[in-house]
Amino acid sequence: MSINKIISIVFFFCVFGANAQNINVKSFYSVPDDMTARVTAPVTDQNGDKCALIKIRTTEKGFVFDGDMLGITKISHEVGEYWVYVPPKARKITLKHQKLGVLDNYIYSEPIKEATVYVMELITGRITTTVEAIETIKQYVVISTTPSGADVYINNKYAGQTPFDKLMPLGNYNYRIEKSMYHNSAGVFSLTEDEKQIIEQNLQPNFGFAFISSSPEKGAEILINGQPTGLITPAKTERLKSGDYTITLRKDLYESVSERIQVNDGQTTNLNIDMSADFGSLKVNSNPTGAEIILDGNLLQQKTPCTILKVAKGMHILKLKRKWYEPKSVQVNVMNNETTELIQELMPIFGELKIITNPKADIYINKAKVGNGSYQGRQVEGYYTIEARLDKHHLQSREVNLIAGEVQQIQLDLRPKYGSLNVRTDPFNATIKLNGIKNGTSPNVIRDLLVGEYHVELSKDGFGTVVKNINIQENETTEINEKLPDGRKVTINSNPQGAELRIDGAIVGKTPYTSTLSFGSHEIQLVNGKRREMEQIQITQTGNDRFSFDVSEFCDYTLQKQGVKMEMVAVKGGTYFMGENVNAYKDYAPKHEIEIPDFFIGKYEVTVKQFSEFVKATAYVTEAERKGFSYLPGKREAREVKGINWRFNEKGKRYKVFGNEPVVHLSWWDAKAFSEWAGGRLLTEAEWEYAARGGIHKDPYKYAGSDVIVDVAWYDGSYEKEIHEVGRKKSNALGIYDMSGNVSEFCSDWYDRDYYANSPVFDPKGPLEGKYKVIRGGSFYFSKSGCEVIKRASVSSNISRSWHRGFRIAKDSKTAKIASRINTNEVKKTPNSYLYKATLKMEATIREEANVNSKVLKNKEKGEIVYILNKSEGIFYRVWVDGVVGYMSKSYL
């Protein structure tokens, strides 16, 4: 194609602004594999650190460089670039040029690190005269390399990096390709109108590697050309520019060694260096053996005899230390590849003491106890105070001067402190016991008694025992002159046995205990662990001579009966307010204070599985089985369903397996029969509410354990309106489950809607008779309000079986106060005394006659408390006066 061209000569000048836009940094980056700053041409700064090298690539000459406060260490002008060495951590650089201006305070875009190479590529303007054609024909040149990232120079001017392409005027060009650690590649190309020029180059590596190992041991430090590399043998180096290098290995206890290697293009040079040992061994022994070894101030783990390996060649200070011996230090010269032997005799600095006491006594050396009866041991030579100490004996002491290498034998005889005891009794011939050991009969003078406290018992058949505690003083005679009271031999026992026993405040031993006590009243105290009981007993000529007391501890336990296991919760007695102050028509009013004694309650409602074991063991037939039906829910009221009994669930389905669901379809009499067979009873209504409220915790909750019913109960608002296994909801504070809802529960009380207004204070058990029995607790069939702990219900004892009613058992605590009744109308005063005749009704079933010594019960106000002493039992009773009836219980005062 013919193109007319108009050529004009245009002279122009590039105008440069004050902001030095004619000098620009095209790129700034680090070259990690360039070893120039680290190995091939390193430069150190004034601090001895290796400088970083900035290769500033430009075709212009005449540049001047200024650093920041750390300065510039060295500048070298190389082909196509300046090499500027700066200290590590430098931050900026200023570039100046006479014609191009100034690039001021250029801040490095990467942190400057020690011995690292960086490349700064510049783009600069220049003054030029250009002949500009009206139209210039251009063509592309495309240059690619393997690997990429190589610098491209065209006509000795930097043009960019591969992969590279540029639209250029037609013509001939020289090019050069450079990349660190690769051989340069150069050539020429021509651009014509016909097609673009494509140049592809595989750059040849100008580097290799070295794999360096050492023997006989690895772990030697590797230096290249005298510079540390941070590598230890065996190791492969980073890229090394092809050429010669000096490899140096250093390792403690070995001589340093250097060798030259040739690194070739693309190859790994292997080098193994044999290192010569620079150490020997030290064989050390001592007499005696077992001495600690301190070598050049360092305590070794070894003790004599031993061989210390790899000891550096040369002179060393060796110190041996052993208890009881004088430390010894010596100089020893260790030769290369040799074992030096050393045997040292240690000088003792101790003597030996052999001490015997008569009688056996504690032995002290300089106030420190070292033995009892005898002692043999070493002591460092010097002065010592030897003492023998024994209770009720005079102190024996001796000063000794112990000399190293000697054995001193010492015997210390202790002199006892004696006193005497003169015992006289009326009548005489009483047995004398000192601390439980017989010492003859009265009258008697007992001599040579060691001083101190003695427990004295004076006893004679037909008389009371006199118990005294005396103190024997040295060289004095203690007098005892006692009249034995008339008395009787009695035995005091406890359950469990082994309780500590005090009689009238004096410790006499442990139960069972037999002795003669004087006639009259005695205070008995029994202690078993945390349980402490106090009783008053009466000793009479014809009264009881055997006394037994229950001091078993009160805690949760498992009640077992013929395969049935029931977990029982111990409920500590206390007071609480029963019921609520609501409208008079409510049967749970008024709110009134009640006191409940200790008792046990079933943790869970009685289950089908447990009831099945009862039936299996007794062949018991329930009321539903005898009558042939029970009740299931109807549309408006309960309906009779034939064939239903305890073996069926709340929906009338027979159980395939007797499980842990609460048993239902029982009458009140069925529940009572099971409870008595298991060794328990049904709960009283007052006990039930006390336990539901958390006992002594006095929970304020609406339901048993929570104000949120779904946490503690199954009720008719539950997702599943059916019986569930016991214990699946949260318990209350006592650890009792399902009291507010699963099935409702029988109580032992007869029901009376007005009973709360007339209830006694202590342990109320309900009316003496009635038609209906009390039901407490909610069930899966009840609404929320019916599940509240205050709510009461009742059912006929004759038709009480139901699909939503069950029970749990209770049991009297062995430590509980036993409730009784006394009819005050039967109390009659005996002239000139406070003896009364009363009829005791125990558990409303047992009658017995008792002599009662008490304050008069007449004219006492309702609720007043008086005390009665039952002389035949030797037990106080606490009585709540309530009209003509006083509620009585044992009180352990």
Automatic annotation (TrEMBL):
Domain Sulfatase-modifying factor enzyme-like residues, every copy: 567-811
Domain PEGA: 141-205, 211-274, 279-348, 419-486, 489-529
One Pfam assignment: PEGA
Domain of life: Bacteria
Database matches in InterPro entries: CTDL_fold (IPR016187), PEGA (IPR013229), SUMF_dom (IPR005532), SUMF_sf (IPR042095)
Keywords for this protein: Signal
UniProt keyword annotation of Coiled coil present: no
UniProt signal peptide: 1-20
Name of the protein in its database record: Formylglycine-generating enzyme required for sulfatase activity
PANTHER family documented for this protein: S-LAYER-LIKE PROTEIN
